[in-house]
């Protein structure tokens, strides 16, 4: 086992993942082990505060609390990393909620770091997903789900930005003047490629299914409107990916989230669109892959915020 602190003990931190519908927490060791993990659905609690206390309590009750050296938190946004507060769109009870302070009160005296869920996903993939295979210096993680989020890891460091909001790739405009986006702009990637917006477009064009999962199933069966919905989303995602790749000389893009779980009906047209639209040579080397860690990526990335690792580069 690793002993990065030189004491012969394995360093352990608490990772917390705040999603729009569920909260998760885990004890994470310096080598990426996750000896204790808990998850709760937000809907089972009277308040988000109660769900937070429960999920953290379930983990800390099963580990040596004194051995927890730090706390990393990934949260649905928007957030303010300077104040340590969050305002997740799907949790109306939390507006400018002081999340870092709330968790710190449960485990006083440890460093606490907060980042966006997309950023934690990218960092988790860089640390425990990609690094196992091909070391990457510039990684974009994308979460394509009810929204489209993301995060960047550049030269082995998560790039969070001055306010903690870097990586909002879902709000790059791919259709200026297009559909209005809840963010206040129009034609954002999210207006085309999020699960609900893909379903909305497909239904407006004659498809009669219920949700993104059904849309993926029909695309796999060759339903023409479902296939077009995925190609349209793939084109929007590819435009955003190539924009980011041109700015950051990306090695690798890792895509997770419910829509990404559709598999080849998304990734085949996505890879074709990225390769087909890449102009400059360095853009043609960008690899686009589905997540290899699934939902654990966010917890591992949150842990990595407070857990120094050896760079794989
Ligand atoms: Zn937007």
Automatic annotation (TrEMBL):
SUPFAM superfamilies: Actin-like ATPase domain. Pfam families: ROK. Belongs to the ROK (NagC/XylR) family. It comes from Planobispora takensis. The lineage of its organism: Bacteria, Bacillati, Actinomycetota, Actinomycetes, Streptosporangiales. This is Sugar kinase. Coiled coil: none annotated. One of its GO terms (molecular function) is kinase activity. PANTHER family: N-ACETYLMANNOSAMINE KINASE, ROK (REPRESSOR, ORF, KINASE) FAMILY. It comes from the Bacteria. Keywords: Kinase, Transferase.
